[in-house]
Design goal:
Blueprint lengths: L12 E6 L4 E4 L1 H6 L6 H5 L2 E3 L14 H7 L4 E8 L5 E11 L2 E8 L1 H28 L1 H27 L3 H16 L1 E10 L2 E7 L8 E2 L3 H9 L3 E5 L13 E10 L2 E10 L5 H48 L6 E4 H7 L9 E4 L8 H14 L10 E7 L2 E6 L2 E5 L2 E3 L5 H5 L12 E7 L11 E2 L10 E4 L5 E4 L14 H14 L8 E8 L9 E4 L6 E5 L5 H18 L24 H10 L6 E3 L4 E2 H8 L8 H8 L12 H12 L27
Parallel strand pairs: 18-25
Antiparallel strand pairs: 1-2, 1-6, 3-4, 4-5, 5-6, 7-8, 7-12, 8-9, 10-11, 11-12, 13-14, 15-16, 16-17, 19-22, 19-23, 20-21, 21-22, 24-25, 26-27
Helix pairs in contact: 5-6, 5-8, 6-8, 15-16, 15-17
């Protein structure tokens, strides 16, 4: 008989392990309940503390057997064992050390553990039953509270519906008062509008109170300042001549919007009121009423604005009819957005003038000037007038290119017309106004189909959004005081143009801007044309203050100027052989066949210089040799559009400069960007740099 065979009589599982962690004995019970035992290491992974907070990822470290072997004293643990079939068993493990052996006994407490667990579950179940009974006892109370809350929510919903369905402040407030009065059983109720330090009743359950000025005691004022709903008990409502004989309650509901006190609702009731039950609803009512009042006010302002704008449109239409403008009509919002779908949905109406068109201002002016030259007019470029003296009937005009004598002067100097006038006449007008623009890439050119103006104001027609003849989009201008030679752009001015234009056409992408520029308007303080012969200087005719309409009105003004000259003594004779045609080859507008013919005739038309606008060398050469020659890079740009594209001359500019220098037989450094003094090149770097 072995030394450990006695353990086979135990009802508990026993294993004996030596100092080398080898199992030297397992009793029959152990073998039965732990049939999958192979070695201590693998077995340790299946035994765990029933409750254990692991501080290591190594599960074996937390095995109760490992802990028992490491202890020099008796060791006990409450453990779980999971079978290969995932069934759980619970054991009390006790370890005793005898010499070189650890005797470990596993006592099965599974039945006991499951019974205790079931008992606990039963106790918890009983607690739940008790809670349900408590809930059932309070069911009536809960139902009443739910009904009360439902009534409050119904009130809030009714007020919300009224607000959504009405834009009349009076209707909104009256309906809200009626709903609240029903909720609180109020016999008196009103809305008092905040007017500075005063309150004036605007809506009341008793119409006789409307318009009365009221005041409140300090308690109420403190609640109002805090924006808090209050419920105060009092013997009389205010300083009334006839006090109440019974206690009443006064509910005060301040109405705020964005921290601004709009007014208050006051309700008087004989019912006992607890704000705790209604506070959330009342705060909701206050918020909604605040928004509704502001929205109603905005609607009224907008409605008035629409009426004012419509009136303005009618006045503009009548003015146009008086001036002989045909086919004008006022479009309503539906028609407007159909014709211009990219306009702001805030646009309400527009005056349409189908006879309005767009033109290239430079090309039109050059066409008229060149035609004049072809018919005998002499143009003196880069000739600045510095003074004018009159001797007898002759004017001596001092310039940087000598003195010019003339019997008649037509002062059409644009933004410098006031300065030219003052050289020999009294100061009668002054021109001091400029506007800034954005020129947008052709990607933005299709945003609008018409010239879009907002209603004009005292400063002019305002910021326009319009397509150009070349497929771009132009946006501007603003209006600001300036000197006649001030063509600078400013952040303030451009920001104003951008923000104003976006009100008309929100979809403009200003990242597609290819150029900003400013121009000085020929605008006078009295906002009117100055077309007259000076009363003290016969033969001196001012043609000034044209502003924007100058371009379109020039042809109508010209006959009046001829009459003034004739009345002043100038003999006018009709020219018989008038030259009224100009021919300019626009390469990109030609058909493929016509292009081939043109290149065959002049190979220079086969060389593209400006890729953005498809402008050829032949067109640039022609611009240089026109009746009024282009002697600068910008002069070429204005005549044939070279440098008008997205890069704004960044690539073609130097090549254009070379062509001008070659054609005029001038040094490259003598070719300016625009007018005299705007030189681009000052010297050669290889010769020592700029001089």
């Amino acid at each position: 008989m072995g030394k450990f065979d006695l353990f086979n009589k135990f009802n508990s599982a026993v294993i004996v392990i030596n100092n080398n962690k080898e199992a030297v004995f397992r009793n029959n019970v152990f073998k039965r309940i732990f049939p999958d035992y192979k070695n201590l290491e693998k077995f340790s992974h299946k035994l765990n503390y029933n409750v254990c907070a692991l501080v290591s990822n190594d599960v074996s470290v937390h095995s109760p057997i490992v802990q028992a072997l490491a202890s020099n004293e008796d060791f006990s643990a409450y453990i779980t064992y999971q079978t290969s079939g995932n069934e759980l068993f619970y054991y009390d493990m006790n370890s005793t050390r005898k010499g070189q052996y650890n005797i470990i006994v596993f006592t099965d407490v599974t039945a006991k553990t499951k019974f205790e667990t079931l008992l606990i579950k039963n106790q918890n179940f009983q607690k739940k039953i008790s809670l349900l009974e408590d809930d059932n006892r309070n069911l009536s109370k809960v139902k009443l509270q739910a009904q009360s809350q439902a009534m409050k929510l119904l009130l809030l919903n009714n007020i919300s519906n009224i607000i959504r369905e009405s834009i009349d402040t009076s209707v909104i407030l009256k309906s809200a008062l009626e709903e609240l009065a029903q909720m609180f059983g109020a016999f008196r109720g009103y809305y008092a509008e905040a007017d500075g330090s005063k309150f004036i009743i605007r809506e009341s359950l008793d119409k006789k109170e409307t318009g009365l000025e009221i005041s409140f005691d300090n308690d109420v004022n403190n609640f109002i300042k805090q924006g808090r709903v209050s419920c105060l008990t009092c013997m009389k409502e205010f300083k009334e001549a006839k006090p109440f004989r019974e206690i009443v309650q006064r509910v005060v509901l301040p109405i705020y919007h964005l921290n601004k006190l709009l007014g208050i609702i006051v309700l008087s009731t004989k019912q006992k009121t607890k704000l705790d039950d209604t506070l959330e609803v009342l705060n909701g009512v206050s918020s909604q009423l605040g928004n509704a009042i502001i929205q109603a006010e905005l609607y009224k302002k907008n409605e008035k604005m629409v009426k004012d704008l419509t009136k303005t449109l009618e006045e503009l239409k009548q003015r146009g009819i008086t001036n002989g403008v045909p086919d004008m009509e006022i479009w309503d919002k539906e028609k407007l957005l159909k014709e211009e779908p990219n306009l702001s949905d805030k646009a309400v109406a527009a005056l349409s003038s189908p006879n309005v068109g767009i033109v290239s201002p430079w090309e039109l002016a050059l066409a008229l000037a060149e035609t004049a030259v072809l018919n005998g007019v002499e143009v003196k470029l880069n000739t600045e007038v510095s003074g004018i003296e009159k001797e007898n009937d002759t004017y001596k005009i001092e310039t940087n290119n000598g003195v010019i004598e003339a019997k008649y002067i037509c002062n059409a100097a644009g933004v410098f017309a006031d300065k030219v006038n003052e050289m020999c006449n009294e100061k009668t007008f002054e021109i001091t106004n400029k506007g800034e623009y954005y020129l947008m890439d052709k990607s933005q050119g299709n945003l609008v189909n018409h010239v879009i103006f907002q209603c004009p104001n005292e400063k002019g027609k305002g910021v326009l959004v319009a397509p150009t003849v070349h497929g771009n989009l132009i946006v501007g201008p603003d209006s600001q005081p300036s000197a006649a030679n001030d063509v600078s752009t400013t952040k303030q001015g451009l920001d104003f143009v951008r923000n104003t234009a976006l009100k008309s056409v929100p979809g403009i992408n200003f990242r597609e801007s290819i150029r900003n520029f400013a121009g000085v308007r020929a605008r006078t303080a009295d906002h009117d044309f100055h077309i007259y012969e000076d009363k003290n200087n016969k033969g001196f005719i001012n043609i000034a203050g044209m502003q924007s309409p100058g371009l379109s009105s020039a042809c109508a003004i010209a006959p009046d100027i001829l009459k003034m000259l004739e009345n002043s003594g100038l003999t006018l004779e009709a020219k018989e052989d008038i030259v009224d045609e100009r021919h300019i080859d626009r390469f990109k507008h030609l058909s493929h066949e016509d292009r081939e013919k043109l290149v065959e005739k002049n190979p220079a038309f086969g060389k593209i210089i400006c890729r953005c606008e498809t402008i050829t060398e032949g067109e640039i050469i022609n611009a240089v040799h026109r009746p009024i020659p282009a002697t600068s890079i910008d002069a070429v740009k204005r005549r044939c559009n070279a440098g008008m594209g997205r890069c704004q001359g960044g690539f073609c500019g130097p090549r254009v400069q070379e062509i001008i220098a070659r054609e005029l037989n001038k040094p490259l450094a003598d070719i300016p960007q625009d007018r005299l003094g705007t030189n681009i090149i000052t010297g050669e770097t290889k010769d020592g740099g700029a001089k």
